[in-house]
Amino acid sequence: MARPRNHLGLTGVPRTMLNGLARRDVLKILGLAALATSSSALVACSDNSGPAIATDPGVVAAQVDREAGDPKLIPGVVDALNHLTGGLYAQLSSQPGNLAFSPYSVAVALSMTRNGAAGKTAEEMDQVLGIGDLAAHNGGINALTQAVEGLAGTFEQEGADPAVIALDSANALFGDGSVTWSDDFLETLARSYGAGMRTVDYIGHTEDARTKINGWTAERTHDKIPEIIPEGVLDELTRLVLVNALYFKAPWQFPFQETLTSDRPFHRSASDTVDVPTMVASLEGAGYGEGEGWRAVRLPYVGGTLAMSVLLPDEGAFGDLEQKVAGGQLAVILGTAVTDAMVELSLPRWKFRTEASLKDALTALGMPIAFSLDADFTDMTDEVADLHIGAVLHQAFVAVDERGTEAAAATAVVMQDESAPAVRVEVVVDRPFLFVIHDVEHLTPLFVGRVADPTA
């Protein structure tokens, strides 16, 4: 049976030419995440609407709309995401210093790729990603993305300018124009991920392709991640790059007063102390929880549907807390920070960027075949023999200050002012800690990180 042509009618290169490249053709997977705190107002936007991708110049796309998400599928996907989060944290935290990554961004990029995998390659990816039924997983990712993006918007405030939450999730594939990509593959990405295939020329114009991909990701992350692909990553053997970009920007519901910020000691280790700008606030109605060897404070963003949870280990117990997160207990920890409390909080400001190649981490977690010459991605295309993953690149940018992400006051606290919190606690974050950006309803880990040195 003849292979269906894609919607641009691309016929691909001759089989003889493909055979000459067969043992080296590669695809790249990129995950980007940016959490920024600049003061300019940005509204929510998304590149995930079905019809738009089909009309963009240079896009190969199935002529189908993105499906409406089924909320019943979200819990299963969040469980899978927590499974991946623990595994990635176990691998990435082995290196010292600050750490930030977006489990959500990585999961979406890999899930798109999984739809092109077959055989043992697919089985290994399912194990790492926590996928039981692929169709349900696709539907759950779709529903979760739509639910999370729906939390963005403009919030009116009494006596103050409206507050804006920006949450931009965008997916794209950059495929070589010489290859005919499977219609089924393209339709799945359009229906469940709102993603189209943007055509580039890796064979003859590799640097132009790199510039195009970096430009797309820079735009989607509002220039917080200007270059996801450094020189030398792409070459004439690259056939496909998959990208997920996630950008989040929001003001605190309980903003810190900048006039109260002062230099205070932060103990990077038992023998290493540095003074860092430390924010202080009395947070009435903040979420609080504690467990064996740790305490958690939930800091809501305006609107109350998104939050950052700060996880502070007891002195000498940082390694134990990291083991709990790596062991898949993050959701349990986040779920404890629900007690209505008056929290006297001292928290350092921080801003850093981390970059990681996830190939070794994902191989260690159990999907080595996808990176090998034995990989099977024939559900993407049957034209390119031995197509395999050459790299999985991830960057995250995180910046936290007194305003959160916008200099604006909160409104939802009024609902909690009628009675005094039952718990009063003091939390001084003066040693390495973890943070998680998540939605409140599903506790989806959008960003996870470790602050070992706020000055780095």
TrEMBL record:
<dbReference type="InterPro" id="IPR042185">
    <property type="entry name" value="Serpin_sf_2"/>
</dbReference>
<dbReference type="InterPro" id="IPR000215">
    <property type="entry name" value="Serpin_fam"/>
</dbReference>
<dbReference type="InterPro" id="IPR023795">
    <property type="entry name" value="Serpin_CS"/>
</dbReference>
<dbReference type="InterPro" id="IPR036186">
    <property type="entry name" value="Serpin_sf"/>
</dbReference>
<dbReference type="InterPro" id="IPR023796">
    <property type="entry name" value="Serpin_dom"/>
</dbReference>
<dbReference type="InterPro" id="IPR006311">
    <property type="entry name" value="TAT_signal"/>
</dbReference>
<dbReference type="Pfam" id="PF00079">
    <property type="entry name" value="Serpin"/>
</dbReference>
<dbReference type="GO" id="GO:0005615">
    <property type="term" value="C:extracellular space"/>
</dbReference>
<protein>
    <submittedName>
        <fullName>Serpin family protein</fullName>
    </submittedName>
</protein>
<dbReference type="InterPro" id="IPR042178">
    <property type="entry name" value="Serpin_sf_1"/>
</dbReference>
<comment type="similarity">
    <text>Belongs to the serpin family.</text>
</comment>
<feature type="domain" description="Serpin">
    <location>
        <begin position="88"/>
        <end position="454"/>
    </location>
</feature>
<dbReference type="GO" id="GO:0004867">
    <property type="term" value="F:serine-type endopeptidase inhibitor activity"/>
</dbReference>
